[in-house]
Amino acid sequence: MPKITGIQTIRTRANGTWLFVKILTDQPGLYGIGSVSDHFRAPVMQAAIENLAPRLIGRDTSRIEDVWRSIHFSAYWRNDALSNTAQAGIDMALWDILGKEAGMPVYRLLGGKVRSAVLAYAHAAGNDLAELEDDVRRYMAEGYSVIRCQLGPYGGGGFLKGTAAGFPQHHWPQDAAFDDEAYLDAVPRMFEYLRNKIGFEPKLTHDVHEHLMPHNAVHLAKRLEPYRLFFLEDLLQPEQVGWYRQVRQACVTPQAMGELFTNPHEYLPLLAERLIDFIRVRVSKGGGITQCRKIAAVCEMFGVRTAWQEGGDNDPVNQMAAVHLDLASPSFGVQEENHFAPEEYDLFPGHARLEGGYLYANDTPGLGIDIDEVKARTLLNPELASRSYLYPEDRRRDGELVAP
Fold first, then answer.
1. DSSP string, 165-209
2. Inter-CA distances, 189 with 125, 140, 205, Å
3. Pick the catalytic residue: 31, 107, 144, 154?
4. Which of 59, 141, 202, 259 has the fewest CB atoms lying closer than 10 Å?
């Protein structure tokens, strides 16, 4: 069996927020790649991989479950975003090696295809209702049947500016204030407009991004029931998921939750009680293919669907890991689409193909994707990569932070 002889990291994208791990073996030309990207903490993830490497050198690459557990317990404290991402990248790379060694794509090792392609949903947005309608129609023309609808940024429709914001005297510097009631008014009107203009042919979703107070989140879910959403995403903060019981009692609006989940204790009660309809864990933040195939199996038992989180900060390697899971999982529901720039796609021979509202993998052994290290180094902008990237702040009128 191949043995691990080295672990390297490859940092790329212009701003340096993509990080990949490359596991080398004692068999010439046999290696695997995985995603350890964290948009906000790329240097931290690089240090985490360097810290783990000594434990893994000499390990048998086929002992994927054992390596996963070894990393999981290696720092004693576990189930956090950073350690999960590190073990996920190594896990993906080991599945990549196993597939190459077997001469099979990873989805075949997971049991084989249960579908021919991966349904993806688009991200439509507009600064006003007319712009949003045009964007929805554009995606419909491209073949998308599931489309997320947002008024501008997250929380759009709920931001008040100028005198309407009602700032107190000597308020902290901020241009706008998020207001729950304004959002509760704007979002149902948005869907009323879209259904009147476009009808019920497209399946529509919306991302609340956890901006609402819990009682208002329940209210929104109930008000959106007539518009038959495909799902309502991240209605509540992870700290407030107990409120999903009230949501379930109030309405049948489907709920998608979990892109911030890292600990099984966060999502297992939601699955077991059937309080959500789609689980949104990112494959890398959930611990990789090894852990997420188990999540998918639990979902199958309880009638919940997977919708692995992608987002604009994600990368093509993590996306490909999600696609392999999607192809082999009966509990798959939908996959978030992600468009990358041409020069970014150019780094990754064998990347997933997005066309007509579906993602397609290839039949190359392993994950089927590689990385051109020369082009990766060329794309990296050292000045941009040296900057800190932190999540932007939204605040209410009194200055209180709104949790993302």
1. G-PPTT--S-SEEE-HHHHHHHHHHHHHHHHHHH-SSSEEEEE-T
2. 15, 21, 14
3. 154
4. 141
Q: Does the annotation mark 209 as catalytic? A: yes
Exposure on the CB side of residue 164, measured as CA atoms within 13 A: 11
In the chain, the percentage of residues whose pLDDT exceeds 70 is 100
User: 380 burial class (0-12, 13-18, 19+ CB within 10 angstroms)?
Assistant: middle
Identify the band that residue 162 occupies on the pLDDT scale cut at 50, 70 and 90: confident
Q: What is the CATH number of the domain that holds 283?
A: 3.20.20.120
33 within a domain of the structure (yes/no): no
Instruction: Check whether 310 has a pLDDT greater than 90.
Output: no
Residue located via tokens 């038959």: 228
Structural domain count of the chain: 1
Half-sphere exposure of residue 184: CA atoms within 13 angstroms, side-chain side:
15
Q: Is 80 within a domain? A: no
Find the domain containing 160 and state its range: 109-367
pTM of the prediction? 0.96
Q: Residue 23: what pLDDT?
A: 98
Residue 154 designated active-site: yes
The tens digit of pLDDT for each residue in 38-90 reads 999 999 999 999 999 999 999 999 999 999 999 999 989 999 999 999 999 99
In a domain? residue 255: yes
CB 123 within 8 A of CB 51: no
Tell me if 159 sits within 8 A of 176, measured CB to CB. Answer: yes
Listed residue (270, 157, 154) closest to 207, CA to CA? 154
Residue 373 lies inside a defined structural domain of this protein: no
- With contact defined as beta carbons under 8 Å apart, do 292 and 267 qualify? no
Q: Catalytic residue, from 209, 211, 219, 351: name it.
A: 209
pLDDT, position 247:
98
pLDDT bucket at 5, cuts 50 / 70 / 90: very high
